[in-house]
Amino acid sequence: MKPDGTLESTTIAAYLGRLASGDPTPGGGAAAAVTAAQGVALLSMVCNLTLGKKRFADVEDEVQSILETCETARRQMLVLGDRDMEVFGAIMEVYRLPKTTPEETEARSAAIQAALKASSEVPFELFKRCQALRPLADRLEQIGNPNVLSDVIVGRHLLIAGMLSARANVEVNLDGIDDAEFCEAKRTVMQQALDGLGESCQGLVGR
C-alpha cells in the first residue's frame, strides 16, 4: 500500500502483502475494518440477489433500504480502517516527544493521553457500526433469497468478528488511559452489546 493510498483503492493482494510486512500499519485495526466491510458486502450481495424477483416483491422496499444502508456502511468502514492507520501514526509521534525537563515530560504525558483517547474512538466507532448492522443480517436471513442463506450467515460472522476485533483494539488503547470514567463508559457499551449476541456466540466474546 502506497503512503497516499487508501484501503478502498488498494488491491487485495497489495493490502495482504502490506499487512504481512514488518510495517505496523496496516495492522489489526485496519484488518478489523476490512473484515467488517467484507461482512457488509456479503449482505449487499444478498440484497442484490433478492431485489427484482417476483417472489420477494412484498419485501422489495425493505431490502432496498437494507442495501443502501450496507453500501454506505461498507465505505465508512474502509474509511475507519484508514483512520486507524492515521491515529496509530499520531501515537507514535507523541511518544517521540522530548522529556528532558519536567515541563516536557508533563506535556508529553498529556499528549499521549489525548492520542490514546483519540485512537480508541476509531475502533469504538467500528464496534458500534458492526453492532448496528448485525440485526440486518438477522432480517435478511428471514426475508432474503434463501439460495444465498450461507452468505448471510458468513456476513453475520464477519460482522461479529469485526466487533470482537474492534473491541480488542479499543482495549489496547484503554489500558494506557488514566481516565477511569472514560474507560468504564467504553467498556460498558461494548460489554452490553456483546452480552446481547446470543448463546451461539458465547465463548467468543472474551478479551
From TrEMBL:
<dbReference type="Pfam" id="PF04961">
    <property type="entry name" value="FTCD_C"/>
</dbReference>
<feature type="domain" description="Cyclodeaminase/cyclohydrolase">
    <location>
        <begin position="11"/>
        <end position="191"/>
    </location>
</feature>
<dbReference type="InterPro" id="IPR007044">
    <property type="entry name" value="Cyclodeamin/CycHdrlase"/>
</dbReference>
<dbReference type="InterPro" id="IPR036178">
    <property type="entry name" value="Formintransfe-cycloase-like_sf"/>
</dbReference>
<protein>
    <submittedName>
        <fullName>Formiminotransferase-cyclodeaminase</fullName>
    </submittedName>
</protein>
<dbReference type="GO" id="GO:0016740">
    <property type="term" value="F:transferase activity"/>
</dbReference>
